[in-house]
From TrEMBL, chain A:
The chain crosses the membrane at residues 21-44, 70-99, 111-135, 141-163, 258-285. Its main location: membrane. It comes from the Archaea. It comes from Saliphagus infecundisoli. This is Phosphate transport system permease protein PstA. InterPro entries: MetI-like, MetI-like_sf, Phosphate_PstA.
TrEMBL record, chain B:
The lineage of its organism: Archaea, Methanobacteriati, Methanobacteriota, Stenosarchaea group, Halobacteria. SUPFAM superfamilies: P-loop containing nucleoside triphosphate hydrolases. Residues 1-47 are annotated as: Disordered. PROSITE patterns: ABC_TRANSPORTER_1, ABC_TRANSPORTER_2. Keywords: ATP-binding, Cell membrane, Membrane, Nucleotide-binding, Transport. InterPro entries: AAA+_ATPase, ABC_transporter-like_ATP-bd, ABC_transporter-like_CS, P-loop_NTPase, PstB-like. It comes from Saliphagus infecundisoli. Residues 50-290 form the ABC transporter domain. This is Phosphate ABC transporter ATP-binding protein PstB. The gene is pstB.
Length: 290, 295
């Protein structure tokens, strides 16, 4: 009998070496992104020390790196976010409601659905070209204005908003719609009272994350002729604006190393902090309503 | 035709529908829907309220119901039993046109409610569903407060006069008031499964429909909650016409006046008084089914 050979039980043993190897492999894959982000954050924060202060956040740009400030770009980015949110939220939710609740499943609808997903993958520089052709040349709203920048980046993130809003609407259990229709509610009443309230946290999370994508966009702003440096904050929709990534790009090309390291680092940290705050807001919204 | 003239001298609901029909209006449902608030006192128990004539239902090319003929009596409990996939739920959803929401579904034949074929062109399915309430298989309250759940139909149907009283009455009629009266603003999702289903029943009866359709309302509940819902159904039949789908034959035998037995293939094999069906079924297949030889 096998039992009398001590620890060699009759079942035998199965090798786990591949299990262990695979676990470490997947762990490594997980760490690459996080470690890279961590290193970036540490380096850029170290460079920003001594540069990122109240004066930097509240002053306009200046040829002297010690006087230079980020205020117009910071405010420009925030205004840009507001325009983008106002444009993409109603359009995105509207399109998502149509696609999920009204549109049938014909070949045309399927074509539209597939292509919205494709649009989300179009490079941002191409959207910049579209904005230049449509809003600047054709509609003549003016090079590099807040409105043109807002519309152009809105087109860029709109597919993301539509896709996430569709996901959120689809996540509303069909049994709730049935309950509403069973009570003699019309389609509009069902959407208004049942579907949208329940999908709203998901829609808002998606929209906020899309804004996070929008705040880092530089290429479309270059294409529509946004000025590299602006000294004042926008006072109308037709003011020329700068945005944070645009200003960082400009400073990085200055020959003075004080700009290339100190000022750019301070601006990058500011951009990252704003971006991470936006993402945290999205997580808070999601948790709060779950 | 049996007509009862109530004390207040108003014409009964049945007369109004008859009048609408006589004047050639196929939209009788819409015409009368605003005047049904007082209807329940004037109903005629036992009179046919829903009449199915040769109803076929198809999902794309698959036929789910074959030539169903049935008369459902007013203020009685009519049970539909049969094995899974026999079409009993499909028939229930044909009555209030919930099948309209399924793109692939197609209905042929006539389904008369109060004399009007609900599949006539002039009939608005939304108006129809305001008179035929529905309770679903698994409890599906909205993620809203208990009060807002019970008030949902009233708000949607713009019946907001005395809304607090109507909500209270519905919750009392659904035997839920004592359990929830102190926490009406808590979410309906916080309730137990059995309470949720009674909340859904309250939601359905708050708008005072003529008919209550129930699609296996107790199948997701434990035995105690099931017996509460069954007791409730018996009470509801005093005011409403109840049509209930169940896969539980004992339940059908306990609570229903009439029983319809559907067998695989979407055929209504036997329809009659519940006692008759269970004690002396005409068809061998029905007897085999209710004695548990198959299904």
């Amino acid at each position: 009998m096998a039992a009398d050979t001590g620890d060699d039980h009759s079942f035998g043993r199965i090798s786990r070496s591949k299990d262990v190897a695979f676990e470490y492999l997947t762990l490594a894959a997980t760490l690459v992104g996080i470690v890279a982000l961590g290193i970036l954050f540490v380096y850029v924060t170290r460079d920003a020390v001594g540069w990122l202060d109240w004066q930097f956040l509240t002053s306009p740009p200046h040829p002297d790196p010690y006087e230079a400030g980020f205020y117009p770009a910071l405010v420009g980015s925030i205004f840009l976010m507001i325009v983008i949110a106002l444009v993409t939220f109603p359009l995105g939710v509207g399109a998502a409601v149509y696609l999920e609740e009204y549109a049938g499943d014909g070949p045309v609808e399927r074509f539209v659905r597939i292509n919205i997903a494709n649009l989300a993958g179009v490079p941002s520089v191409v959207y910049g070209l579209l904005g230049l052709g449509l809003f600047v040349t054709l509609l003549d709203i003016g090079y590099g204005t807040l409105l043109v920048a807002g519309f152009t980046v809105s087109l860029l993130v709109l597919p993301i908003v539509i896709i996430s809003a569709r996901e959120a609407i689809r996540a509303v259990p069909d049994s709730r719609r049935q309950a509403s229709y069973g009570m003699g509610a019309t389609k509009w009443q069902t959407i208004r009272n049942v579907v949208l309230p329940e999908a709203l946290p998901g829609i808002m999370t998606g929209t906020i994350l899309a804004l996070g994508r929008a705040i880092g966009e530089t290429a479309p702003l270059i294409m529509i002729g946004a000025p590299t440096t602006v000294f004042g904050v926008p006072n109308s929709l037709f003011s020329k604006i700068s945005a944070m990534p645009m200003q960082i790009y400009t400073w990085a090309s200055y020959p003075d190393t004080a700009f290339q390291y100190g000022v750019v680092a301070a601006a990058s940290v500011t951009l990252l902090v704003v971006l991470l705050s936006i993402n945290s807001a999205a997580i808070l919204v999601r948790n709060r309503y779950q | 035709m049996a007509r009862n003239v109530p004390d207040d001298g108003k014409p009964s609901r049945n007369e109004r529908i008859d009048a609408a029909e006589a004047s050639g209006e196929t939209g009788g449902l819409i015409e009368t829907s605003v005047t049904t608030e007082d209807s329940d006192e004037h109903s005629t128990p036992g009179r046919t309220i829903i009449e199915s004539r040769g109803v076929d239902v198809f999902y794309d090319d698959v036929q789910a119901l074959r030539g169903v003929d049935m008369e459902i009596p007013e203020n009685r409990v009519t049970a539909m039993i049969g094995p899974s996939g026999c079409g009993k739920s499909t028939f229930l959803r044909t009555i209030n046109r919930m099948n309209d929401l399924v793109d692939s579904a197609r209905v042929e034949g006539e389904l008369r409610f109060g004399g009007t074929n609900v599949y006539d062109e002039g009939v608005d399915p939304v108006a129809l569903r305001r008179r035929i309430g529905m309770v679903f298989q698994s409890p599906n309250p909205f993620p809203k407060s208990i009060y807002d759940n019970a008030a949902y139909g009233l708000k949607v149907q713009d019946k907001t006069d005395d809304i607090d009283d109507r909500v209270e009455r519905a919750l009392r009629d659904a035997a839920l008031w004592d359990e929830v009266q102190d926490r009406l603003d808590e979410s309906g999702l916080e309730l137990s499964g059995g309470q949720q289903q009674r909340l859904c029943i309250a939601r359905a009866i708050a708008v005072d429909p003529d008919v209550l359709l129930m699609d296996e309302p107790a199948s997701a509940l434990d035995p105690v909650a099931t017996s509460k819902v069954e007791d409730l159904i018996a009470d509801l039949a005093e005011e409403y016409t109840v049509v209930i789908v169940t896969h539980n034959m004992q339940q059908a035998a306990r609570i229903s006046d009439k029983t319809a037995v559907f067998l695989t293939g979407g055929e209504l094999v036997e329809f009659g008084d519940t006692n008759e069906i269970f004690e002396n079924p005409e068809h061998d297949r029905v007897e085999d089914y209710i004695t548990g030889k198959f299904g």
